[in-house]
Amino acid sequence: MSAPTEPDLPVSDEPRTPEPRRVGPPAPVILPVADTALPRRRTHPVSIVFEALGLGVRDAVLFALLVISTGGWWLLPVGLVVLLVISGVRWYRATWSFDGSTVVADRGVFQRSHREIPVHRIQQVDLVRRVRHQLLGMTTVRIETSGGPTSSELELAVVPAREAEEIRAQLLAARDRTGGSPPALGARAVPDPPEVASRPDEEVLLTLPARRLVVAGLTGPQLLALPLALAWLVNLADDLPASVTPDLEANDVEALGLFSLGLVAVGILLAWILVAVVAGMVTYHGLAVTRVGNDLRIRRGLFDRRDTSIPLARVQLVQLTAHPVHRLLGLVDLRVASAGQAGPVAAGANHAVVPVLTRPEVERLLSIILPPAVPVPELVAAPARARRRQLVGPLVKTAVLVTTALLILEWWGVRAPTPELAVAAVTLAGAAAYGVAAYRGLGASGFGPVVASRRGAIVRRTDLVPLARLQSTRRTASVFQRRRHLATLWLDISGMHQAVALVDRDADEAELLLERLATTDAARADDADQRPGIDPNEVGTVSGTVA
Amino acid sequence: MRTVWRAHWIVTSALLALPLALLAALSSGTDRAVFAAVAAALVSGGLLGAALAPGKAWSRWSYGVGPEVLDLEHGVLTHRRSSVPYFRVQHIDLRSGPIERALGVTRLVVRTASATSDAELPGIPTDEADRLRCLILERAGRDDAV
After folding, report:
1. CB neighbours (10 Å) of residue A93?
2. Preceding peptide of A158 cis, ω within 30°
3. Helices (H) and strands (E) in chain B — how many of each?
4. What are phi and psi of A191, to 5 degrees?
5. d(CA A144, CA A127)
């Protein structure tokens, strides 16, 4: 990183390969260097404007301050030109090419970066179309590989929609040819002309009727849309000068009467529901899950179109989530995670989500996405002695919290409105109920080609982990767990910030699973077509230990 | 390794106590007594920890280099056991701080494609660490998997 910036240096077409270092017995092998004779491609020139807009937001404020404070209005066009020139130069410097085996991307004006992405490393290709992109018929292509936890490996923003489709088809077709594994070492990959690449037909697996989208909006995160908007409005109203906001006095409220207050409440509720429904329709508009060859494709969105392709062989984890309302209706949200996605699973933003599915629909999708997970492995409840632990945890935490809160109130000289004991009792009862629910939420499958784990007191989440994707396994047992002969098993998966936990299992069972899981043939079978049809009884390589 | 952990305990508690000691020096009256008492408690806690914890932690530490997996077991309050199959190993780091270097030991950190994997072997004699690394790398090279 200490390389001095040398803007005058001619662009070297030879990518710098690191000096081979003899570190161990395996001789270092230098992978074939991508063919750099290919024409360099750029994103669409409109990108300059988008880039300028993106740059502008923060700097525009500073610039506006400068303009206002000096009164130099002539600075305005100058600033605009400078902005466009900067963006233009950056756009010009950002080039990429694809020779059928490697994506080569260069960018940077002063500090230059050169990046090569072997096509077999591609985990996922996303097409994102924001509203402003759609107006101009543009699309952003995001290429995700494993190991980049914070951002996309390469983002082509923006290219014409047609070209974006072509790029994706070429990349995925080339990836399919490599079979997801690196080309033979030393052998130069055959750079097929990308034009020849043909993609298999698209097979529609699932679409959701409009009625279901309404349900999705009503039961999904869209419910928060209105409260958030209101909070924002209230914030805004607070900032308004006092003369603008009407003077609402206590007696005004009284004058309005209960009836009108009720009307207002109903109105707000209706508006809330309406907003949620509309938000759901907008987010999931045109939701379609399809299969193209060995890729899963999920498309959705009315304004911001999202089009995600995940190679089936790269699926790391399938998550089924259901909150109480979903459970009442027998619906679950299905998330597909590959190693290339940024952010924790909980954030969900970059993950492929298919909302509100019925059981049969889930099974149908799973039979394509994760064949060994059908039928969904049977879950075994955690041992009964785990109930105590699940209960004690929230109880102790709440007790500490309530006691401190009451003590602080006492210290401030505030009398609690109701007797302290009543408050404490109600909260503790709530904590106990939570504990029971948490225990009932715990469940895990035994040993198999797919391990399932369920947890959650209110929102139940079931994680389906294919053994073929398991990186390592851990077992932890705290002091309290050991007293009850319990342990938690952690399954580490690539690209996730959180391991999948099998909480409070029997300690012996956890130990056995730990020893068996990671080294089985199922875990080694790192190929999509090898995954189905693994007989759990056949997998029995238990490792011994040499000290 | 016990020496290293011991040093860590002492340094950490001293670093925590230092600002409090400074505050005690700058303040007066009851405040001074309180700050001084907390600082003293921190230091003595650190010394006590340095005396007891490393031995306990060390006695809990064990690892096995199996034919297929690297198996680690450690942890005093929470017992942890971790198994990392060689064919999932992405890269191996060798790390050593100043105290570790003075004692001629190294930490061997094995990494997989998962950020949550836990495979850090502390206190390996430096030449042994190199041998171990070669062994794991050799076994990791047999398969290719992501």
Report:
1. 15
2. yes
3. 4, 6
4. -80, 80
5. 11
Query: Mind telling me how many Å the CA of B102 is from chain A's nearest CA?
Result: 23
Coil/strand/helix, residue A466: strand
Instruction: Read off the amino acid at residue A394.
Output: P
> Quick check: A180 pLDDT over 60?
no
Give the orientation angle of helix A210-219 with respect to helix A250-284, to 10 degrees.
130
Instruction: Give residue A13's pLDDT band: very low, low, confident or very high (50, 70, 90).
Output: very low
| Least confident range of A226-230, B1-5, B131-135 | A226-230
| Contact between residue B84 and residue B119 where contact means Cβ atoms under 8 Å apart | yes
Q: Which of residues 24-63 of A touch B (CB under 8 A)?
A: 24-26
Query: What does the pLDDT average to over A346-354?
Result: 57
Other beta carbons within 10 angstroms of residue A271's beta carbon come to 12
d(Cα A49, Cα A91) in Å, to the nearest integer? Answer: 10
* B3 or A186, which is more confident: B3
Phi–psi pair at B105, nearest 5 degrees: -120, 165
The mean pLDDT of A422-444, rounded to a whole number, is 88
pTM listed for this prediction? 0.68
CB contact under 8 A, B145 and A524: yes
Q: What is the pLDDT of residue A239?
A: 55
The first and second tokens of residue A315, run together, are 């699926």
Between A445 and A202, where is the model more confident?
A: A445
Are the Cβ atoms of A544 and B66 closer than 8 angstroms?
yes
Whole-angstrom distance, CA of residue A498 vs CA of residue A343:
10
Q: Is A18 on the interface with B (CB under 8 A)?
A: no
Q: Whole-angstrom Cα distance, residue A155 to residue A148?
A: 13
Sign of CA dihedral A181, A185, A189, A190: negative
Contact (CB<8Å) A25/B88: no
Angle formed at CA A185 by CA A184 and CA A189, multiple of 5 degrees? 60
Do B82 and A26 make contact, defined as CB atoms within 8 angstroms? no
Between B36 and A352, name the one with better pLDDT: B36
Beta-carbon separation of B68 and A546 below 8 A: no
Backbone angles phi, psi at A120, to 5 degrees: -75, -10
Mutate to test the interface with B, among A472, A482, A520 (most CBs of B within 10 A): A472
Going by pLDDT thresholds of 50, 70 and 90, the confidence category of residue A453 is very high
**pLDDT for A527:** 37
- Say if strands A122-129 and A305-311 run parallel, antiparallel, or are unpaired: antiparallel
User: In which residue are the tokens 């409440």 written?
Assistant: A265
Residue A520 pLDDT > 60:
yes
B115: chain A residues, CB-CB within 8 Å: 149, 495-497
Contacts of B134 in chain A (CB under 8 A): 24-25
Residue with tokens 């994760």: A370
Higher pLDDT: A28 or A271? It is A271
Which residue from A219, A426, A188 is spatially nearest to A324, judged by alpha carbons? A219
Asked whether the beta carbons of B137 and B15 are under 8 A apart, the reply is no
pLDDT at A303 over 50: yes
